[in-house]
Structures are given as C-alpha cells and as structure tokens.
Amino acid sequence: MTDAVIQMHNVTKRFGEKTVLDGLTYSLRPGTVTGLLGTNGSGKTTMLKCALGLQTTQEGISTVFGEPSTELSAASKARLAYVPQEISLYPWMKVRQIIAYIRAFYPRWNDQLIARLVSEWNLPVEDRVGTLSTGQAQKLAIVMALGHEPELLVLDEPVASLDPDARRRFLATLLEIAMSGNRTVLFSTHITSDLERVADQVALLQDGKISYDDELSSLKDSVKRLRISVPGRLPDDLEAIPGLLNCDRNGTSAVVSVRNFETTLPQRLRQEWQAEVNVEDLNLEEIFLELHHSPLVDIKQWSLSRGSGDGSRIESCSVARRDEIGRQLSMTFRFGNRE
Q1: How many CA atoms lie within 13 A of 275 on its CB side?
Q2: Which CATH number fits domain 6-87+149-219: 3.40.50.300, 2.60.40.10, 2.40.50.150, 3.30.360.10?
C-alpha cells in the first residue's frame, strides 16, 4: 500500500443530501495505465478531484506520493499533471504564448515533444485561445499537461470533445508516453472502446464505490455469456448457476451471463442437464452493460422490442436467489433501485 501512487481509504463525499462517494477505497499502482469506468453521473470527476485534493471530503483519507492530497508539497505537485473535463484557459493569449507561459513554471520541459504534438494535432499557434473550438482547447490542455513529462498523469474524460481521428492520435500518444518511462496514468471515461485500446487496468465506479479493480484481461476472463439449450424443458434451478448476473429464458433455451467464470462450468451443465452449452467472450462494453443493468429491465426491453418468438413466456431467474448468490462473491455489484 505504501508504494501506491494514489491511495484513497474510506472516502465519503456528499453534496448536500446526495452521497456521491460512499466509503470508497482505491489504490493506484505505479507504472500502470488505468481506466476509471463508470456511467455518466457516477462520480468519476468527484473521485479524481478528491484523490488530488481539489475537493475536500467529509470522511476518509487520500494521499498522492504518500502525502495528504490537500497538503501536497511543491515537489509532489511538479511530479503530476491533471487535465479536467471542462477546460479553463486564458482566452486573450495566443496558443504559443500560453504554452510558453506554462513552460516557465517547470524546470524540465520537453520542447521536442510539444512541438511534435502541436504539429500532429494541428493546433493553430497564432490563434487566440478564446477562439479555439472545444476540441482544440482540450488538445491544448493535454499538450501542456504532457510538457513536463509528469510521473502521474490524471485525465478526466480526455477524449470527450475530440473527433475520432484526434481520439486515436491522443490514445496512441498516451500509450507512448506511458511506455517511455516509469509513468502512471489514470483516466476516466465512459467510452469502453477507448479504455480497451490503452488501459492495462480497469477500475469500475458504481454506487459510490470501486466495485472492481484489477487487470482488464482478468475482467474479460471473469465475465462470460453462456447460451444453453436442452431437448426438453429447462431446469427450474437456472438461478443456481454460480456467479449468475443476468438470465433470459425462452422455452427450451436460455442466455445467461456469469462472473467469476469457471472453465469447468460448461461441462458440468452439459452433464447435469444434457444441455448444449456455448461460451461467448464479451467485450468491455458488453461486460459494462451486464454489470450495470437489472435483469428485469433487460428482459422487459427485450420482450417489447423482439417479442417471445414462438409465443412462450419469457422468464427471469429468481432475483432473490441471484442476490443471495451475489452476496457470496467477492466482486459485488448492486442491482435494483439506485440512489
């Protein structure tokens, strides 16, 4: 824990009566590129600001480089860079002037890198900052954050205002910067495809807590979809499948998603139910949706849009039993009503 670049322990943040972070604990490991994934409004921005000491918390402790986040020394501040989602820059300055202005604050500055990025990202150096588009302003902020080659780079929705081409270029640069030294990158996003391109770690923010924090590959290995079909009637105890997340039954077939997937599970189901079982890998977007949506909502939408095919009744697996199983698992995701 002492080696963590960012450490948050039991952090709670409220805005009036609304609790955004609820006893959140998180540790950012050095040398990783971590994507902080969550729905819009889940509290990603609040978490990043609390982690860096830009917002105070009602409870808990946050540290950066081992120092309290709200009391960072000048030396520690020089080792990090933060780019917020909403950019605020001096509008009267020209692009080249504001880059030079920021450069003066740092004893170390990579002029070659900045010149390359300004050229590759087509930033108009003689234009005033106030005339830039939202995407151009975001590019400029990212360029200035990279100039002093920070050990810790924290980005809040860094590609939200960029066009697809600029997004690809930025993500390639981000990966290049991360691999060029012992750097740590933490970026928030709700765009799962961007996270898959560059992140080796993923942290899921849900209901004010980090519900998953591990390697991206481990998450993909953990969550799978099973397509099950049987010659006769489906067993009544589908809800007993270990790690069940969602379940759609339709006559003699069912589609289920599970977490903490065991490679022996399909063969056990084949033997016990004389079933045909096909296992499907899921991409991060599909996993994200499986973990965030109640089965009852999914089933209702499915039945309204597609119907039940042969007229048979679409059923959900027992919610009570699913939740009982879910409480026994180490990776907890809450379903049902949300705050």
Answers
A1: 24
A2: 3.40.50.300
